[in-house]
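Entry: Thiol-disulfide isomerase/thioredoxin
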Amino acid sequence: MNNKIFYAIIAVIIIGFLGAFLFLKGEKNDPDNLSDSGYYPYTDKEPSELQGPTIDKLDDENYQLNETPESAKEKIDSGEEIFVYYWSPVCEYCLKATPLLMEAKNKEDFPLIQVNVLEYPKFQREQGIEATPTLIYYKDGKEVTRAEGAAETADNYLDWINRTREEK
């Protein structure tokens, strides 16, 4: 009799762990549960396809302007001016530069989107991105100029952005 109770308790524990595992696994595949805010810009990808470092940045306020390649192409091809920031969540320079770029945007509004090249390496190659971070200014559907590497301050970004917009 004691053996039956022991095995029943073990079975209940195993079933409990299995149920918790399946429940948590299901939540990780739901875009609404990947981040506390519900932010999920990777509409062309299943949550299970995202890289871990990308998931870690979903709730970071500095990475809330991400676009898919299709959406980025539409905005570039619209003819309107736009700055596209190509970044990667595994790039140390990006992790330092992105908050500075967002600080610049908060100081002076300008059209900006982000593209995560870790998730979209094909788009990275198509755009000729060889280093991250890279900030490209597009106008009339064409690349006008680019800045590769991290700026040291938000004002450095603003100076480059304003100079670029005035010259072109």
